[in-house]
Specification:
The structure is a single chain. The chain is mainly alpha-helical and 180 residues long. The chain folds into two domains: 41 residues; 110 residues, Arc Repressor Mutant, subunit A. The chain contains seven helices and five strands; from the N terminus they run ββααβααββααα. The strands form two sheets. Strands 3-5-4 form a three-stranded antiparallel β-sheet. A hairpin with a 7-residue loop joins strand 4 and strand 5. Helix 1 crosses helix 5.
């Protein structure tokens, strides 16, 4: 089995030996341990913050929060586009939007040029609720991330942003790029 030596900048063929296979297996095991630990720590942090936020009187179901965030980020959307972005069925999206309308968080209106098209937009109350939710979440996150300085928080934000950007890329897992 042949590989290449990328550290020297030249393409030198090197033979894969049992020793290099062992190193790769060790690196894979190390990577898996780190990823499992990251998942555990991050999940615990998010669960804790989410549980604390549920205690607030304005608590909004997570599906509606996702709807509000989407409308805030993308602006008014057609029902069919919302269903696609939220990865729900058309009827599920309609039910979600109906509940958000009942609480005054979003508004629904028909397209002036094509009455078959239904648009959904964030209402003023939805904007306010989302802003308050963000403030509360930030306060709770700050409580658990207070031991990090500003530079570390910026680094964490950049790293997580790169990870979320990768979500839109086609699924591809290349072990070699992860363990180099």
């Amino acid at each position: 089995m042949l590989g290449s030596d990328v550290q020297s900048g030249q393409r030198q063929e090197i033979e894969q030996t049992p020793e290099t296979d062992e190193v790769k297996e060790w690196q894979t095991a190390q990577l898996e341990q780190v990823l499992v630990r990251l998942d555990e720590v991050w999940s615990r942090l998010i669960r804790r913050v989410s549980a604390e936020i549920k205690e607030y009187p304005f608590a909004i179901p997570i599906a509606q929060v996702n709807l509000l965030r989407l409308l805030d980020r993308l602006g008014a959307k057609r029902m069919s586009d919302l269903a696609t972005h939220l990865d729900v069925t058309q009827s599920g999206c309609t039910a979600l939007v109906d509940r958000a309308i009942e609480t005054g968080l979003v508004e629904r209106y028909r397209d002036e040029n094509d009455r078959r098209v239904v648009w959904v937009a964030l209402s003023a109350a939805g904007n306010e609720a989302l802003a308050e939710l963000r403030r509360v979440r930030a306060r709770h996150l700050a409580k658990y991330l207070r031991h990090l300085d500003v530079e570390e928080l910026e680094l964490l934000t950049r790293l997580l942003s790169r990870s979320t950007a990768a979500m839109s890329e086609p699924d591809s897992f290349d072990h070699d790029t992860l363990v180099q």
